[in-house]
Amino acid sequence: MDHGLPPRALIIGGSLSGLFAAASLRAIGWEVEVFERSASELSGRGGGLVLQPAVLAAIAFAGLDAGRVVGVPSGERIFLNRAGQVVQRSHAPQTQTSWNLLYGILRRGLPAGVVHANQQLLRFEQHAGGVTAYFAGGRQASGDLLIGADGAGSAVWAQLLPGLAPRAPGPTSRRRRCKKPRRRWMGPASACGNGICGPTGAASMRAAPRCWATAATTRRR
Q: Cross-referenced SUPFAM superfamilies, in alphabetical order (predicted)?
């Protein structure tokens, strides 16, 4: 590549990891292009998250405008017995947020034309000048760096580690949200605590009296 120009990164995958990589590289002077295989917008696809300090640090590093609300606080976890009596309270101060809210912050922070939808990576080639990516439909893109952030079924992984496909463990838990506490006992892993209830988009995020969740295997309904 011409090193008289800013370095360029090709990021395969336009979900949170790909967008965080793009925003962070732009903050240090890189040009970036993000290639997402899905044809439609990814917003609304994720669930609730506990906001970690590293996420806030990454948002600040990238110079992104997180807006006034990045989550809602939760103070404790409450464990009940079969009779619905409180048997344990755990002090667990956390900030609850949503995948969709973080995705919106990242997408708004990138200029138009940086994220390309409906771009399925076929292969990439490394060469003396950098790397070139080839996509279904005939598109090509070249850069100094290629980042694989394309998740499960990663095309980047498949080329780098052929024959070593990641194995999905399957669902290991179920998460439920409700406006009112349930009276029916849901098992020893049940818990409730202050947090998010209802839709968790940026406009509807709010504190709620209780959130309930129960661990379950795929056979348990």
A: FAD/NAD(P)-binding domain
Q: Could you report the per-residue pLDDT of 88-116, keeping only the tens digit for each?
A: 888 888 888 888 889 999 999 999 999 99
Tokens matching residue 112:
């138009």
- Is residue 109 assigned to a domain? yes
Strands (E), 8-111: 8-12, 31-35, 48-50, 72-80, 86-98
Give the whole-angstrom CA distance, residue 180 versus residue 35. Answer: 42
If asked whether residues 105 and 210 sit together in one domain, one would say no
**157's tokens:** 């992984």
Cα–Cα distance for residue pair 107/44, rounded to 1 Å: 13
Number of domains in the chain: 2
Q: How far is CA 178 from CA 97, 137, 220, in A?
A: 16, 45, 19
- Residues 86, 177 within the same domain: yes
Half-sphere exposure of 159 (CA within 13 A, CB side): 15
Sort residue 198 into left (φ over 0), alpha (ψ -120 to 50) or beta.
left
* pLDDT tens string 147-206: 999 988 899 999 999 988 777 777 776 666 656 555 544 444 444 443 333 333 333 334
105 and 54 in one domain? yes
Of all residues in the chain, the percent with pLDDT exceeding 90 is 46
In a domain, 210, yes or no: yes
How confident is the model over 135-141, as a mean pLDDT? 96
Give the global pTM.
0.73
In a domain, 219, yes or no: no
